[in-house]
Amino acid sequence: MPSQNPSSSSKVRGRGGSLLAKGSGELQNAREAIRWATDYLLKATAQPDTIYVQVGDANKDHACWERPEDMDTPRNVLKIDRNTPGSDVAAETAAALAAASLVFRRTDPTYAKLLVRRAIRVFEFADKYRGPYSNGLKNFVCPFYCSYSGYQDELLWGAAWLQKATRNPTYLHYIQMNGQTLGADETDNTFGWDNKHVGARILLSKVMN
Q1: What's the pTM?
Q2: CA 25, CA 105: separation in Å to the nearest integer?
Q3: DSSP 8-state class, residue 195
Q4: CB neighbours of residue 18 within 10 Å
Q5: Cβ neighbours, 10 Å, residue 145
Q6: Over the chain (209 residues), what is each successive 10-residue block's mean pLDDT?
Q7: How many Å apart are CA 8 and CA 98, to the nearest integer?
Q8: Residues facing residue 79 across a β-bridge
Q9: Rounded alpha-carbon distances, angstroms, from residue 138 to 16, 50, 127, 133, 150
């Protein structure tokens, strides 16, 4: 699926939580860049149990080598919902919203709370209506954005970020109860847009220690 990596906190925090951008004067620019993305995600998740996940025709877009300003390929809008689930992209979106909430916790607590509330709702949708989004949207997203690793890793990833953002033991309990079935013990050691197991383990190691 198109990447929605929740790297927000890493953009403004370094080792030991120090603010990397503070000394360079780029911290506000980093926040604005993150907010641009989260505003988009808030709009894409405005309807309960629905997420707008793609704009455009993947095949035609990948065949087009023009600059975006000159592209005239179709701007089709694709969504997932109860009938066409997408636990992977939904849980990834929840993770992104939860991670970004940490960036705004002190500077804009109202916005941070909005991000957390939406992340919780989106994660509930991801978990309740399970299935990879590229099953229902296969003709539109494959072979470019197929969910090859399944949706299980994203559910763990989303729960891990919600645990970090909310400190609610519900999410740690969710991982403890569902970890085995969601592949927490798999031996994969790579992290990427389609596999979040390693990232979830790192987040959880900080919670457990």
Answers
A1: 0.87
A2: 19
A3: B
A4: 10
A5: 20
A6: 52 48 75 96 97 91 90 91 96 97 96 98 97 90 87 93 94 88 74 86 79
A7: 10
A8: 52
A9: 42, 18, 20, 8, 13
The token duo for 139 is: 């003709």
Contacts 24+ apart (CB under 8 A), 199-208: 199/157, 199/160, 200/153, 200/156, 200/157, 200/159, 200/160, 200/175, 203/160, 203/161, 203/163, 203/164, 204/160, 204/163, 204/172, 204/175, 206/164, 207/160, 207/163, 207/164, 207/172
Distance CA 197, CA 73 (A): 35
Token digits for 75? Answer: 């701007």
Residue 145 tokens read as 């954005």
Q: How far apart are CA 44 and CA 17, in angstroms?
A: 31
Tokens encoding 194: 């389609």
Q: How far is CA 146 from the centre of its chain?
A: 16
